[in-house]
Design a protein that fits this description.
Blueprint: H1 2-11, H2 14-38, H3 45-57, H4 59-62, H5 69-77, H6 80-85, H7 90-118, H8 132-163, H9 166-180, H10 192-198, H11 202-206, H12 208-215, H13 220-248
Protein name: ABC transporter permease
Keywords: Membrane, Transmembrane, Transmembrane helix
Transmembrane segments: 16-38, 107-127, 133-159, 171-190, 220-242
Length: 254
């Protein structure tokens, strides 16, 4: 029920979705142009275009800064007490709220943007995967990426509960993830040693992994295995942090 309510609320912002599509399309066009000018020794022109169109279309789903701001506001203002007093799993509630928030914005933007990109001339055209196995693996990997991002979001909320300030936590996470998740700079443009290290981290799980599976660049099963491990670890970490902070929660006046 909570998921449905949050989804319906998010789907109402069609005007914001249209402006978001325009912004993401322009930014994607600029990124594709930039990396094709840098050379195609690491990725082909078709791979560059497809990679960045996927990133732009799914940015509301897997960007660390796409969070339900009300979660942070509730913690900072103290209104989180009302959620805590209800007989419900607070971790699951925040997980669902953030998921519905991200998914509603993705549904409004992803399909129109990819359709437009599919009919663009070369070398800006969005390409379909080479085979059905890559397509199927991409969707499973994307699901893991989405769930992992939600788990990371709950870790962020837990840290805000500890620090009482959302701005510092958000700046730290956005700075790290924008550089290390492969959204702005694909891993294939990093030094080989750095690529090897990053592919063992959760940064790789949330963006690069599903995109590389789509392009047929990485083995599917081992990639999904590492994504599943990171999802489990981050879920456990976030749950533990939130429970720990809830034990310290004080409500003045009652």
């Amino acid at each position: 029920m909570l998921f449905k309510l949050r989804m319906n609320a998010g789907l109402q912002y069609r005007g914001a979705a249209i402006s978001g599509i325009v912004t993401q399309f322009i930014w994607g066009f600029l990124l594709i142009t930039l990396f094709q000018l840098l050379g195609q020794s690491s990725m082909t022109a078709k791979e560059i275009a497809t990679y960045f169109w996927l990133n732009q279309a799914l940015i509301a789903m897997n960007a660390v800064w796409t969070m339900d701001n009300q979660l942070f506001q509730e913690v900072e203002s103290g209104d989180v007490q009302y959620s805590v007093l209800r007989p419900q799993n607070i971790y699951l509630q925040w997980f669902v709220r953030n998921g519905a928030y991200r998914l509603s914005r993705t549904l409004l933007r992803a399909i129109p943007l990819l359709l437009i990109a599919f009919f663009l001339p070369e070398p800006y055209r969005f390409a379909l995967p080479e085979n059905s196995l890559a397509f199927f693996g991409f969707f499973i990997s994307l699901l893991f990426a989405f769930l992992t991002q939600l788990a990371i979001g709950n870790v962020m909320v837990a840290l805000v509960m500890k620090s009482k300030q959302a701005i510092g936590v958000r700046i730290l996470f956005v700075s790290l993830f924008d550089f290390l998740d492969g959204g702005n700079i694909p891993y294939l443009y990093f030094p080989v040693v750095m690529q090897t290290v990053l592919k063992t981290t959760f940064f790789y799980s949330i963006k690069s992994a599903p995109f590389f599976i789509y392009l047929g660049r990485v083995p599917i099963l081992s990639t999904l295995f590492f994504q599943a491990i990171w999802f489990g670890l981050l879920t456990g970490l976030g749950y533990w942090l939130i429970q720990k902070e809830l034990q310290k929660l004080e409500v003045y006046g009652g």
